[in-house]
């Protein structure tokens, strides 16, 4: 009889390794055997029908996707990251994402699970404002975005450039001088610029001003009304915080799955992913994050951290292997999409670090 491990069964059935172990211990998989501390499962075994509470089942509700393109977005790594989702046994009923960015993992989880509590945060005030506006003022936001779309799309290239630059200037003015009464407009401008700028980048100069030029999209979908409404509905019970990742400590406990996706460590000395925010995230801060991860690990939380693999450019660079030596490190293949030099785009390795 050919057998497979619990990890192989988890990959085959699309559930967690922990859930497979539970199914084995409950004798819900025929002909399983235990060798030492490892389950041996027949390769032709079928995935048992899930009899657990639907509160933790994947749902048939609306699927949602990120409403912004974001540097370092995790859409292409979801298949790898979802293997770590620990929601199957009901013990983990909370989710925290302290570097939410475009929220690819957040929206995947929101589409699949009904959790008790969800916490997201980011230090980018304009990004967090946009999340709040999508959640709380969706009608007003959609009205503005529809106006931008009707005004922008029919224009010729030079007219588009003038329109784009005017909106960019208005966004920067609100960013520096705006007040809460203008937060809806600022969020609409954030989405407009994201949908029409070069490569969908969010990048600021040393003064904190958005400086990305216009992109060359022929017919950009500035107002994706269906997805925005679905996102707004899913965000209703999500706690949205503007601030440093350390603020999540009060939320995280032994019932929480935490995904940390910090600004990536540059692969080379000239790389500048961290320049896409006003706050650099240097090696000292990477070390501080690793220490925070360790403190959350001691609380009993289930944790996954992603980052670049320095071994792409220097096989002797053990930076992350050292600072996360107490945890499991998996190297996965990814495609670098955002780079001004097309020759620098391509397959690289990224790190998924977990404490379970």
Describe this structure in words.
The strands form two sheets. Strands 6-5-4-7-8-10-9 form a seven-stranded mixed sheet, sandwiched between helices. Helix content is 35%, strand content 15%. About 7% of the residues have low confidence. The protein is of the alpha/beta class and 356 residues long. The relative contact order is 0.12. Helix 1 crosses helix 2, helix 5 crosses helix 8 and helix 6 packs across helix 8.
Write the layout of secondary structure elements.
Layout: E1 3-4, H1 6-13, H2 17-25, E2 33-35, E3 38-42, H3 78-81, E4 94-97, H4 104-112, E5 117-122, H5 125-136, H6 138-152, H7 157-177, H8 183-196, H9 225-234, E6 238-242, E7 256-260, H10 283-299, E8 302-308, H11 319-323, E9 328-336, E10 346-354
Parallel strand pairs: 4-5, 4-7, 5-6, 7-8
Antiparallel strand pairs: 1-3, 2-3, 8-10, 9-10
The spatial strand order of the largest sheet comes to 6-5-4-7-8-10-9
Radius of gyration: 22 Å
Q: Overall 3D geometry?
A: globular
How would a textbook summarize the main sheet? 7 strands, mixed
Strand count? 10
The portion of residues assigned to helices is: 25-40%
Q: Uncertain spans, ≥5 residues at pLDDT below 50? A: 50-60, 271-278, 338-344
Give me the strand/helix succession: EHHEEHEHEHHHHHEEHEHEE
The percent range for strand residues is 15-25%
Q: Determine the mean pLDDT.
A: 89
Observed structural traits:
356 residues; alpha/beta; 7-stranded mixed beta sheet; 3-stranded antiparallel beta sheet
Summarize the structure.
The chain is globular. It is α/β, with parallel strands linked by helices.
């Amino acid at each position: 009889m050919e057998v497979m491990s619990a990890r192989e069964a988890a990959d085959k059935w699309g559930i967690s390794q922990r859930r497979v172990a539970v199914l084995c211990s409950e004798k819900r998989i025929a002909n399983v055997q235990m060798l030492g501390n490892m389950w041996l499962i027949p390769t032709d075994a079928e995935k048992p029908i899930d009899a657990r509470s639907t509160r933790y089942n994947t749902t048939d509700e609306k699927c949602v996707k990120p409403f912004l393109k974001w540097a370092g977005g995790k859409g292409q790594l979801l298949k790898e990251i979802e293997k770590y989702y620990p929601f199957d046994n009901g013990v983990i009923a909370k989710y925290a994402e302290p570097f939410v960015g475009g929220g690819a993992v957040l929206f995947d989880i929101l589409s699949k699970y009904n959790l008790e509590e969800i916490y997201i945060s980011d230090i980018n005030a304009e990004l967090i404002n946009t999340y709040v506006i999508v959640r709380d003022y969706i009608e007003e936001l959609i009205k503005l975005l529809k106006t931008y779309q009707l005004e922008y799309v029919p224009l010729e290239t030079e007219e588009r450039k003038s329109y784009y630059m005017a909106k960019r200037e208005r966004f920067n003015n609100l960013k520096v001088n705006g007040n809460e009464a203008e937060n809806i407009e600022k969020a609409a401008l954030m989405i407009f610029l994201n949908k029409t700028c070069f490569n969908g980048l969010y990048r600021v100069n040393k003064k904190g001003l958005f400086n990305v030029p216009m992109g060359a999209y022929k017919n950009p979908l500035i107002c994706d009304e269906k997805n925005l409404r679905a996102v707004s509905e899913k965000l209703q019970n999500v706690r949205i915080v503007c601030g440093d990742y350390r603020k999540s400590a009060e939320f995280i406990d032994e019932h929480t799955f935490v995904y940390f996706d910090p600004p990536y460590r540059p692969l080379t000395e000239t790389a500048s992913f961290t320049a896409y925010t006003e706050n650099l995230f240097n090696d000292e801060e990477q070390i501080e994050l690793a220490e925070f991860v360790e403190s959350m690990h001691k609380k009993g939380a289930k944790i996954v951290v992603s980052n670049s693999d320095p071994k792409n450019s220097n096989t002797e660079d053990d930076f992350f292997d050292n600072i996360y030596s107490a945890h499991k490190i998996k190297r996965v293949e990814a495609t670098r999409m955002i780079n001004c030099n097309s020759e620098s785009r391509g397959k690289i390795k990224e790190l998924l670090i977990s404490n379970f």
